[in-house]
Amino acid sequence: MKWIIAVIVAALLTGFVYWQRQGVKVSYVNGLTAYNALPGREYIFQRDCYLFKLDDRVSSWPYVGDHAVVASLPAEVDPKHLDATHPTGRIIDVVRTGDRFKLVSVRRDESRHGTSISFELLFLDEAERKYPRIDAYFIMDHSPEVRGEAPSLLRAYAVERVKY
Fold first, then answer.
1. Distance from C-alpha of 148 to C-alpha of 34, rounded to nearest angstrom
2. Can you say how many angstroms the Cα of residue 113 is from the centroid of all Cα atoms in its chain?
3. Are 106 and 142 in contact (CB under 8 A)?
């Protein structure tokens, strides 16, 4: 009987260690010097994009992007692809050129595979959206991260809104 309990405890401990190693630690880094000026800025989409979920990359919010940044997405952004299952996930909505949003949070995801920074965006017309908050990971320029600087949104996808 003692051996059975020992085996169960060992299996639970092994499962816990495996779960911890596969997990992702999420922290919000809005207050760090490199990122504190980013939240609250408003932007305008410069091209049509999809909102989508990926099977192999978990996020609290749907991702935004198109075929140029995620090759498995259809080349033409068209609502006929909504709810269609694709090799890597599912398309759930379409974002149109001119849609406005603001950057609400800067998130750092740490796992055994590495660390990545992502922006959480909120549509300005959030009450009219099924998915008002989205993850901008794929439409970001991550190259400044290697120098310890803040990433930015790719200008081909979004430009900052000028307020008068």
1. 8
2. 16
3. no
Tokens of 45: 């989409």
CB 64 within 8 A of CB 51: yes
Helix runs in the chain, H state only = 2-22
For the chain, the domains span 24-160
Q: For the chain, what percentages of helix, strand and coil (3-state, to nearest 5) are there?
A: 20, 35, 45
- Give every CB contact of residue 137 below 8 A, 6+ residues apart in sequence: 59, 63, 116, 118, 119
pTM reported for the whole predicted model: 0.80
Residue 151 token pair: 């990433």
Residue type (1 letter), 143: S
CA 96 to chain centre: 18
For the record, the structure tokens of 68 come out as 């140029």
Q: For the segment 34-75, what is each residue's pLDDT rounded down to a tens digit? A: 888 889 999 999 999 999 998 888 788 999 999 999 998 898
Q: What is the largest CA-CA distance in the chain?
A: 76
Supply the pLDDT for residue 82: 86
Nearest to 52 by CA among 26, 86, 23, 75: 86
